[in-house]
Write a structure and sequence with these properties.
The protein is of the alpha/beta class. The chain has eleven helices and 24 strands. Strand 6 and strand 7 form a beta hairpin. Helix 1 packs parallel to helix 8. The longest helix has 17 residues.
C-alpha cells in the first residue's frame, strides 16, 4: 500500500488548484484522476461546434504538474473510502490499488442530471466530458450534411437557458449562418425560468434573449420538457403543450453528484441535497471529520454557484489549511469575481463586481481575456488564439478539420466501466 500526506480525487479546477498550492510547501500529494487530461470544461461547447480542437482544452495533467515534484498523478476510479483507517481504494486497468493518507480532498465534480428522468440520458446529448463534446461534434456534422429537406436533421432543441445552453444554441445557429451557409438550422432554446441566464437577470438576460432571437434562435421561456421519445420533445408552458421534432436534443438543465459523493457521505455521515451533493461545513470539511475535505461542484454551501472560480478558491483554501498557512476550522470565504457567458460571435455578457455589466463586443473581449488567462499552458493559449481567430474573424472551424482527419477521439477513462465520470469516480447509477 502506498502512503502519502494528501490524496486529491479529481483533476478538475478544484483538484488541480489544491495540488498546485500544496506543492508550494512540498506536501507529498497523490492526485487520482480517471483521465490523463485536465479538462477546461467551460469550453466544451466550442469543441462540440468545431471552434477548438480537443487538445486545446485538455492538456496533460502530467505536463501541467511536471514542475511540482511533490505531486504524483495516478489514473483510476475511486471505489471506496475508509475514513477510520484513512485509506482510499481505487480501480485501475491493472486491478485494485490502495493508498493511505493524512488528509483527503474530494473534488470529483458532477454529472448531468435529468430531474428524475434518467432515461433521457440515452436520448439527448450532454456536455460534461470530452467524449460528450466529441460525440456531439460528430453528430452535428452528420446533421449539417443531411439533405436540406430533412427537417428533423436540421432542427435542434437545447434544454436549459444557463450559460452552456445559451452558448451551444448560439453556436449551432451560427454554424448555419456562417459555416454551413446553404443548410437551414432551426434552433429552439427551452428554459423553465422566465429569463435566459436567470442568475444574471435584468439587462444581461434581456440582451442575451434579444441577441439570440435576432440570430434566429427561438426562445421558449417558462417552458418545461415533459417527455422525450425518439425525435419528439414534448414541452409545456402553462396549459399549452407543444411537440418539437428534432434529431438533436442537447441537455444542459441539471446536475447530479457523482458516485464519490455518496461514498463519502456514507463513510462520514455527511448529509446530501436532492442532487446528491455533499452539504459540507463552512470550513469545507465533511461531516465530523477534520481530515476530509470536499470542494467544487460536488458540494453545496451557502448557495455558491457551481463554477470554476469557486472550486479553485476552495482548492487553495483547503491546501492552505493542510499546509498550515491557515488555522484548522477557518471558514471559507468566496471572493466573487463575476460571471460571464458568450452569446454568439462578438457578443457576450459579463456580470462583474462593483455593479459593472458588459454586453456585446466589450463583454466578448473581456471573455476572451479571462479565458486566455485561465487556459493551462502557454501552448494552449497560443493555439486557442489561432483557432479563435480562424473561427471568429474568418469562417474556419479547426475542430471540424480535426474531426475530418480522423483525429480527436477523446481518450477514454480508465477501463471500460459503465456510468462513470471523468474525474476519478463512478457516477451514481
Amino acid at each position: 500500500m502506498r502512503n502519502t500526506d494528501v490524496v486529491v480525487i479529481g483533476s478538475g479546477f478544484g483538484g488541480l488548484a489544491a495540488a498546485k498550492r500544496l506543492a508550494k510547501s512540498n506536501v507529498d500529494t497523490i492526485l487520482i484522476s480517471a483521465t490523463e487530461e485536465h479538462l477546461f470544461q467551460p469550453l466544451l461547447y466550442q469543441v462540440a461546434t468545431g471552434v477548438l480542437p480537443t487538445e486545446e482544452i485538455a492538456p496533460s495533467i502530467a505536463d501541467v504538474l511536471a514542475s511540482k515534484e511533490s505531486v504524483s498523478v495516478v489514473r483510476g476510479y475511486v471505489t471506496d473510502v475508509d475514513v477510520e483507517r484513512k485509506v482510499v481504494t481505487y480501480r485501475t486497468d491493472d486491478g485494485s490499488e490502495q493508498v493511505s493518507y493524512q488528509h483527503l480532498v474530494a473534488a470529483a465534480g458532477v454529472a448531468q442530471g435529468y430531474f428524475g428522468h434518467d432515461e433521457w440520458a440515452d436520448r439527448t446529448f450532454s456536455l460534461k466530458t470530452l467524449d460528450d463534446a466529441v460525440a456531439l461534434r460528430a453528430h452535428l456534422l452528420e446533421c449539417f450534411a443531411a439533405p436540406a429537406e430533412d427537417a428533423e436533421a436540421h432542427t435542434y432543441v437545447v434544454v436549459g437557458g444557463g450559460a452552456t445552453g445559451v452558448e451551444i444554441a448560439g453556436q449551432i445557429r451560427e454554424l448555419s449562418a456562417r459555416y454551413f451557409t446553404e443548410v437551414p438550422a432551426e434552433v429552439y432554446l427551452v428554459e423553465g425560468a422566465g429569463d435566459l441566464l436567470p442568475v444574471y437577470g435584468g439587462k444581461l438576460s434581456a440582451f442575451t434573449r434579444k441577441t439570440l432571437e435576432k440570430a434566429g434562435v427561438e426562445i421558449l421561456t417558462d417552458t418545461f420538457v415533459t417527455d422525450i421519445d425518439g425525435q419528439e420533445v414534448v414541452v409545456r408552458s402553462g396549459d399549452d403543450e407543444r411537440v418539437l421534432t428534432a434529431a438533436t436534443v442537447v441537455w444542459s438543465a441539471g446536475v447530479q453528484a457523482t458516485g464519490l459523493a455518496s461514498v463519502i457521505a456514507e463513510a462520514t455521515g455527511c448529509e446530501t441535497d436532492r442532487a446528491g451533493r455533499l452539504l459540507i461545513d463552512d470550513d469545507l470539511t465533511v461531516g465530523e471529520r477534520d481530515d476530509v475535505f470536499a470542494i467544487g461542484d460536488m458540494t453545496s454551501l451557502k448557495g455558491f454557484p457551481g463554477q470554476s472560480p469557486v472550486a479553485m478558491q476552495q482548492g487553495r483554501h483547503v491546501a492552505d489549511v493542510i499546509r498550515g498557512k491557515k488555522a484548522a476550522g477557518t471558514e471559507f470565504e468566496y471572493l466573487d469575481k463575476g460571471s460571464m457567458a458568450v452569446v454568439n460571435r462578438h457578443n457576450a455578457v459579463v456580470d462583474a463586481p462593483l455593479g459593472i455589466k458588459l454586453t456585446g463586443v466589450l463583454g466578448w473581449l473581456a471573455w476572451l481575456g479571462v479565458h486566455l488567462f485561465y487556459l493551462v499552458g502557454f501552448r494552449n493559449r497560443v493555439a486557442a488564439v489561432a483557432s479563435w481567430f480562424k473561427a471568429f474573424a474568418g469562417r474556419a472551424r479547426p475542430g471540424f478539420v480535426q474531426a475530418a482527419r480522423g483525429g480527436s477521439a477523446a481518450r477514454r477513462p480508465v477501463g471500460s466501466f459503465p456510468s462513470q465520470g471523468a474525474d476519478g469516480v463512478e457516477n451514481a447509477a
